[in-house]
Amino acid sequence: MEKIKELREKTGAGMVDCKKALDEAKGDIKKAIELLRKKGIAKAAKRGERETAEGIILVDANEKNTEGYIVQFSSETDFVARNEKFQAFTKQILDIVKNKKPSSMDELMSIDINGTSVKDTVDNLSGVIGEKLAVAKFEIVNTSGTVAAYSHMGGRIGVLVEIDKADTKDISTDIAMQVAATDPKCINPEEVEESLIQKEKDIYKEQLLKEGKPENIIDKIIEGKINKFYTEICLAKQEFIKDDKKSIEEVLDGSKILKFVRYSL
Fold it and tell me: Is residue 139 part of a domain?
């Protein structure tokens, strides 16, 4: 029973599976873990083609708010996303990202957790839970300014925002909330692709001609519509959600948004 308990703690597998694996391994814990991992990996492989539309997004920042972390985990159903084992695993991976700071997904997948790689741990947990699971993506943001981390809708949306000035956590958090709510495509108008602007101009021109607007004022109207378009997709030009009389640019008061990361299920 002690060995079964130990095996369960190390693998998360059920009691019956642990007993069978220990019998097959003749009481050798390491061999039993390997057998369970192989079974888990085999089950996970069969689920390889399934959709993982659910999951959870975890975010965090260090105490000085100079480094932010965001990780997206995928599962097939919301039920599993709320599973205690899955949630404990996600927190463990977030801690690894914070402490080990892997530079790529391959590096993260190869990191050791209690004698097992992250990849094999994911595969094994997938076999135990009975769904395809994955660490979908992650990012680390370092700055000499401020990073704010914001989680929305119980982990369905996660945001990191980097501002160029230090000790601006409050406004950085407000802007992270803004990013979660409005899903901007970029920070400033200069970042919008010219092809997208031209496409919008063509659509506006056709609409205005159909409405019978005189050609000599169409360009001026289009210019106004493009500026309105920028307020929808460019974070710096958006109305501030806490005070719609001000733009984000005005609220920043000379500070600059250097980067934002937004993950959404």
Answer: yes
